[in-house]
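Query form — protein ABC-type nitrate/sulfonate/bicarbonate transport system permease component

QUESTION: What is the three-dimensional structure of this chain?
INPUT:
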Amino acid sequence: MTAVARSREVLRTYPWYVLGLLIAATTWELSSAALGAHRLPSIGQVAAQFLPLMTKSPTLSFQGGGDAGYLPHLVHTVLYTLGGAALGCSAGILVGLAMARYRLVRGIAEVPIELLRTIPPLAAIPFILIWIGPGNSSQLLMVGYYAFVMMVVTTLNAASNVEPLLPTFAATLGASGNRVFRTVVLPAMLPTIVGGIRVAIGIAWSVQVVAELMGGRYGMGKVFSAMVSFQALDAIIVGILWLALSAVVVDLLLVAAIRRLTRWMPN
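ANSWER: The structure tokens for ABC-type nitrate/sulfonate/bicarbonate transport system permease component are given below.
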């Protein structure tokens, strides 16, 4: 898709985006009026706290969350989400590629990977907390574990979806097995792999926040835990919105990188 065609597509869909936002905002306001502000704060109440809470929150400070507001906690969550996802995705892709390329590696690693895949990531969190203890290392391990297992499976699926005629045709032209894998199979796998990275990072946010809720001293999970104690729903919604905004920005940057990596593709 060319830049002009992409721009036209955005212009055609933009009104629907606006309509969706208006419907969501109207539903929010009507629900707030029906349930009461104590059960669902209005948009105005949340908007009034949206920026001030980033730099100062007396409630969070009282609960031991520091005097700098949400900002350092949001930065912590972003860094450890991306750090854990980067470590897990890198290791998962390497193991997946090795399993796809070498039968011996696949034979050794396939059963352990299948066993790990059957364990829900959130179910593994208590074990990791007991094993390592609450802290930054356990958070990295939790996010990395999820990303690793997901990317191993995604990489293997990408290899199995490669058109069989492509490597066969390259081999008939005299290319070695390693060269076929490097120049034919790997580029064909790339779109599926980078799509899997996007999904893994998207879910890694949830894993990171849950890890923080279960004993972290910093992060948005700590913020949510503190605000629940005071039933500060407007402050909780502000935290959710800032976390969602961060996730959207990261996803947009990732999509731009994916488009650059796969610019050779027709679409």
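ADDITIONAL NOTE: The mean pLDDT is 85.
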